[in-house]
């Protein structure tokens, strides 16, 4: 079959090239950090010209915001595959967080931009507000389903627990980055989730 032509083929090709740039930028920002990475370096990694990159992203700031959104969308895709069990969901969350530590540069960007995006006039404000609320809602729904299935105790405040988990995650990531990555982030997260599971599970067992 030949290469798709016309508007649809051009759109598909353009989307593939854009994702190629985002993937290259995600890896480079994760390894070297945003400040040390040039657009020319990302273009070389993506195997395109500087002009080709600028066709999709007019400047480094726009690329940065797109990369952070792209990374969060990947996290959303990972969450979909998580089993219905709350206990297994917590375990998968720990695994995904451990994997993200291999790209501390991107994690730092997400934390910094997430804090800056609390300002209503920030270009990423709507995205981060939506993504944060979406995460809380999805975890609350999973906790609620866990109570209905008998995995968790009845009478829990599911949204309250979900917000506490989200706040702890955000706070620990900030501490880990600000403290020079001087403590075992995953161990601290696991300890919290283990205690939480012991408290809310119907069988009284942790992770």
From the structure above, extract its key features.
single chain; 207 residues; mainly alpha; 9 helices; 73% helix; elongated; disordered N terminus
Describe this structure in words.
This protein is an all-alpha fold. It contains nine helices and no strands. It has helices spanning 6-32, 39-45, 50-56, 60-80, 86-100, 104-116, 125-149, 158-178, 185-200.
For the largest beta-sheet, the strand count, sense and barrel status come to: none
**How much strand content do the residues show?**
under 5%
Category by helix and strand content:
mainly alpha
What is the residue-mean pLDDT, rounded to a whole number?
Answer: 86
Approximate helicity band: over 70%
Task: Compute the number of strand runs.
Answer: 0
Mass-distribution shape = elongated
H and E order: HHHHHHHHH
Rg, alpha carbons: 20 Å
Distance between the termini: 51 Å
Which regions are unreliable across 5 or more consecutive residues at pLDDT < 50?
Answer: 1-5
* Discrete helix count: 9
């Amino acid at each position: 079959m030949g290469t798709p032509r016309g508007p649809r083929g051009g759109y598909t090709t353009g989307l593939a090239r854009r994702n190629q740039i985002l993937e290259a930028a995600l890896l480079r920002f994760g390894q070297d950090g945003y400040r040390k990475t040039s657009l020319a370096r990302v273009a070389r990694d993506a195997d395109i010209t500087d002009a080709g990159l600028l066709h999709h992203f007019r400047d480094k700031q726009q690329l940065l915001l797109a990369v952070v959104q792209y990374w969060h969308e990947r996290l959303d895709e990972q969450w979909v595959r998580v089993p219905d069990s709350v206990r297994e969901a917590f375990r998968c969350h720990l695994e995904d967080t451990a994997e993200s530590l291999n790209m501390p540069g991107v994690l730092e960007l997400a934390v910094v931009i997430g804090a800056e995006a609390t300002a209503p006039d920030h270009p990423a404000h709507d995205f981060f507000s939506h993504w944060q609320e979406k995460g809380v809602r999805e975890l609350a729904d999973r906790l609620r389903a866990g109570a209905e299935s008998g995995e968790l105790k009845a009478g829990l405040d599911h949204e309250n627990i979900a917000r506490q988990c989200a706040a702890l995650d955000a706070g620990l990531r900030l501490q880990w980055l600000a403290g020079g990555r001087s403590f075992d982030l995953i161990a601290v997260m696991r300890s919290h989730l283990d205690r939480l599971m012991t408290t809310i599970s119907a069988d009284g067992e942790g992770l």
